[in-house]
User: Which sequence fits this backbone?
């Protein structure tokens, strides 16, 4: 009986390579076994699945510089709402309360931005409302939409700061909800003026974009996605992208 329980535990542990729970307990989202045991059961490459985005679940109006699917695109100048005509479109679905999203952003965010600056891709960020019972997630994702609409030149700097400020408390080993004051710190680092931050704060406290976030999350699930971070490149969705398995995809994008 004990042997069966150990085998079951190992099998369960391999599932959690992305943010999968709304409960702020790291035990529900991170492996509990050794990395060698988990790695042996995981595919060595990212899993690629053909997928098409839809928008039938989305009825809310989009903020300025946000596309019809709820994504914030970046072209050569890394300004929200721009794109590189004819280039591959790389969509990243994430949340700064997801430790695996933070890890992905740390590993690949700058490289993806460099590819956008070089005109090789249009990079599109999708705030993904996975953690609907978490105040920090609710307000930080709305803040990303606000910055895209009102300070598009500062979107990248704000997102970087938001993820960086969240990282110490949001880890795979232990996840603690960051204080919403982190949003103000990120705004300061991105150079957003106090009067504009006051406007942002009013809007996100009034949940101006919350319904949109709920609808885009519903659409995400209806489109066949499940976990974050998730990546879509043109018509292909990529999963199982933790632990360096997205690196070969990056190399292909650089060609």
Assistant:
């Amino acid at each position: 009986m004990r042997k069966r329980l150990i085998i079951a535990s190992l099998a369960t542990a391999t599932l959690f390579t992305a943010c999968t729970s709304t409960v702020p307990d790291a035990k529900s989202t991170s492996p509990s076994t050794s990395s060698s045991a988990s790695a042996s059961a995981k595919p060595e490459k990212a899993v690629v699945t053909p997928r098409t985005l839809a928008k039938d679940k989305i009825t809310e109006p989009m903020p300025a510089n946000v596309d019809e699917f709820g994504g914030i695109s970046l072209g050569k100048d890394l300004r929200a709402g721009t794109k590189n005509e004819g280039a591959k479109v790389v969509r990243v679905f994430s949340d700064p309360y997801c430790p695996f999203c933070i890890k992905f952003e740390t590993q690949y965010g700058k490289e993806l931005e460099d590819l956008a600056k070089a005109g090789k891709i249009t990079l599109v960020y999708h705030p993904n409302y996975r953690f609907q019972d978490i105040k920090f997630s609710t307000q930080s994702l709305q803040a990303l939409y606000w910055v895209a609409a009102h300070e598009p030149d500062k979107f990248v700097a704000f997102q970087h700061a938001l993820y960086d400020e969240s990282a110490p408390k949001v880890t795979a080993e232990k996840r603690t909800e960051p204080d919403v004051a982190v949003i103000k710190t990120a705004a300061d680092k991105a150079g957003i003026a106090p009067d504009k931050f006051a406007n942002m704060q009013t809007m996100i406290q009034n949940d101006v974009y919350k319904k949109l976030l709920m609808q885009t999350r519903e659409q995400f699930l209806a489109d066949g996605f499940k976990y974050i971070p998730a990546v879509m490149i043109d018509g292909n969705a990529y999963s199982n992208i933790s632990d360096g398995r997205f690196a070969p995809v990056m190399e292909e994008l650089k060609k």
Remarks:
- The radius of gyration is 18 Å.
- Residues 99-117 form the longest helix (19 residues).
